[in-house]
Design a protein that fits this description.
2 helices; 3 strands; three-stranded parallel β-sheet; Rossmann fold; alpha/beta; single chain
Length: about 80
């Protein structure tokens, strides 16, 4: 028998938040809470909010998916 997949919640947000920013900390806690709640997390795979949510989910033992877009690598911040 296969284990059912967790539902995936996608979170996208700004890339400017740094680890000392309250927004970053809240996003990390969100990632942890989603994992504890039984969800997998998907994000844009970049820095800031997306990094924080992914980090929180990963640290809580969760399933994390990064979804990138090659066109964004050519844009300036």
């Amino acid at each position: 028998m296969t284990t059912p997949r967790r539902p995936i919640i996608a979170v996208f947000g700004g890339s400017a938040a740094q680890p000392d920013d309250p927004l970053y900390r809240r996003a990390r806690l969100l990632g942890e809470a989603l994992t504890v709640g039984g969800f997998a997390v998907a994000s844009g795979g970049y820095g800031g909010v997306m990094e924080a949510v992914s980090l929180g989910a990963h640290q809580a033992g969760g399933e994390v998916h990064g979804v990138g877009c090659h066109i964004l690598t050519h844009r300036s911040p």
